[in-house]
Structure formats: structure tokens, C-alpha cells
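[stage:ingest] chain + small molecule (DLL)
[stage:ingest] validated
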Amino acid sequence: MIFNPEYEAMDGEARKKLQFARLKNLVEKLYADVPFYRQRMDEMKIKPRDIHGLEDIARLPFTTKDDLRETYPYGLLACPRSHLEEIHMSSGTTGVPVVDAYTKKDIEIWGEAMARTLAGAGGSRDDTVQNCYGYGLFTGGLGVHYGAKTLGANVIPMSSGNTQRQLMVMQSFGSTILTCTPSYALYIAEEAEEAGIDLKSLPLNKGCFGAEPWSENMRREIEERYNMHAYDIYGLTEIIGPGVAFECEAQDGLHINEDLFYPEIIDPASGRVLPDGEKGELVFTTLTKEGTPLLRYRTRDVTFFRREPCSCGRTTVRMNRLFGRTDDMLIIRGVNVFPSQIEQALIEIEGTDPHYLIVVNRGATHLDEVELQVEVKKEFFSDETKGLEGLRTKIENVMKSKLMIGVKVKLVEPKTIERSMGKSKRVIDNRTI
Ligand code: DLL
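[stage:predict] done
[stage:export] C-alpha cells:
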């Protein structure tokens, strides 16, 4: 079912007109109300009146994660603070705080975008959504929640974790849609198997999975283990959270809600806009947002666009499943982590050298496990084991509080981590997805 055919199945030319009107409005607003954007546009000698067509977007400035960091927390706010209704922040908070501040209308639009997403997977008001994305600052939990409510479905706000209880609820309430990260879906499946629960016999028949990279292999495995259809959903805190793009029942690319988020693919090196079909960095402009609207936000995610008609009847552009990122961001159990954050935290801990290696594995449980190998200063290493154990626990605690993920620390002797003549290799990612 198409949740909102007026916009999702809109005639292409009419949509372009709508996008242009919204873009023009946005640029005027940003120039008038957000000093950061006014300054950028002044520097580039472009005024809102110079925007005559959609293609003129290429003349407007980009916004980057660094810009968000420098303007944290309220520098990009485009409305009075009293108009805000909710604030979210990206999961990897410390190094790169990314804020999304929503007005009442922004939350309504989020609900709409997510209702489209759930409907894309075949969801309707008859469904019971077991929502195991984390509730809180992370956008996954509440994003799905608002979408389910807008759709008129029943939502069980489980949040992630406590797998035994997830299984109990799944059986008792007859959940029909599962929403969580794909790796958590597989983890639940393992636990079910161990507990002798036959997932295939449950009413659960579809799932919306995203927030981390996954593959066709993982899709097949989830579909097989649950006897369900598994759909890829995409979004990011900066733009709205989940609800930016979603797969329909054709499972053939993700439809972008392009009346709400204007998408571009650029060459990450030159910033040049690339034609449809060419792989590059995904860029979004928020077309209706009131709280923290963004102009040409560089997501660092890599994909390409397809515009041929889809069998589902939606006319929106589709993006391919993501190929990866242009930066070194890791997604560990749904939490965004930059190696630089780990480095920053280590520098502050006495007794360690800034030589480290992050090893990421996805074990039999399908959950990400991180081992952080850290070199210990010479004087510390000759110390008694008690001191070393204390240091190890301290690093683990610091990482837990700064990164919000658990890491296993392995202290190693000075000069054991391989030195590099060029760009040092800080991460060994053994996950095969
Ligand atoms: O992960 C929002 C979300 C919640 C999306 C629930 C889908 C479902 P952030 O924590 O800001 O927001 O992380 C955004 O996660 O730039 C991608 O690199 C990655 N990502 C999100 N969805 C997918 C996906 C949420 N379907 C970052 N496939 C993005 C691959 C994804 N990577």
C-alpha cells in the first residue's frame, strides 16, 4: 500500500515544482534566520534571489559534520527555542555531537515519513509493530514509534535488549512487524532457536531493518529464519532519523521521500553533482524542516540513484543499498563510532601510549564485538599485574561512558602494534555481512 499517493506517486514534473518552491522558501529562511548560512552564502556571493531553478542548488554551500560540531548545540537552529518539541542526538555523541531539534510540525512530518516506510513494507493499521530500536536520544525508537502511530498500527515500545522478553512479547501479543537493526534481528533468532521457539510459526511476517550496513546475504538469512519479508530502511539523525528512504515490497532499491528531502549524488573529491546511475556521496537538503533545516548535508554515505519506474507505483527516485562510507566511521551495534574518538579518550588516560588497534568481529551471536588493543607505557608495563588490571578496567570504563559501547581492552607491550610509514591502520574490521 502507498501511504500517501499524492506525494509518493506524484507526477515527476509536479514534484520538481514542489521541490523548487520548498527549496526557495528554505533558502530565504536560512539566509534571514541562520547567521551561519547567511555568512556562507555571502562568502560564495549568492543570494536567495539567485535561485531560479532546482539546478541552482549546485551553487549553494554544502553543510558538513564539522559544521554541525562547530555550531553545536544551537547554532543551526532556524526557529525560536520555544517552538521546539523534541531534541535527538546521534548515538556516537562525544566526538561529533549531531543534534536534530524538531518542532511540532517536524515531528508530524517524521511520523508521515515513517508511516510511508512501514506501509512500504506492506504495513497497515492492522499490524502490531514490535519496535526494538532503542528509545531515547537515538532516533530509531521514537521515529518508528511516530510512524506506527501515524499509520494507525499498534506499536509495542520494546526498545533494544532483554531478548528473552522480546521473545515472550512476540509470542504473547502476536507481533506482525519487527523493527530493529539487522544484526539484532539475527541475534533474536539465535536466542529463539536456543529456547526452542519456532519463529516461523509466529504471526511475525515482515521487518524493517536499518541503522547499520547489511547485505543481501543477511536479508536472506533473516527472511529464512523468521519466514518473513525483510526490508531495508535508511535515515540519519542530521536529516530526520529513520524515514529518509525505504524499500517497498519490490525490494529493489530504497525510495527516497524526495518531496521532503532533496537528494543529490556528488563526487566526494570535487563536490561536483553526478548524473543518475553514477556512484558517489549522498547529499540531502531538508525541504520542510523548521527546527534544524540543513542545506546540502554531506552524509558520507555512498550509493547511486535510479529513476526508472518501480512496480509498486511510487514515482520517487530510488537509491541503491549503501556501498559504504567515505570516512572511517564505524557502526558498532548501531552506535556511530569514529576511531578519532577512541584516540581522544586514550590520550587522557595516564599510562597508555597513543598506539592502538581496534578489532571488530561479529561472532556466532551476530552482535558486534570490539577488542581495543592499547600499548602501555614502558614504566607501566614493568609494574605488577594489579596495576595493569586497574588500567585495563579504567580504559574499559572510559570507553563505555564516552562511546556508549562496551569494548574489551587488551593491553599490549610497548612497540608491539605495527607502525606505519603512511596512513596508519587503526581498524581491523573482520565483519562479513
Ligand atoms: O541510524 C537512523 C536510523 C534508525 C536509520 C533506524 C534506520 C533505522 P544515525 O545513528 O545518525 O541514524 O546513523 C546514520 O547510519 O549515515 C549510515 O551510515 C548508517 N545507516 C543508516 N541506515 C542504514 C542502512 C540512524 N539501511 C548512519 N544501511 C547513516 C546502511 C545505514 N547504513
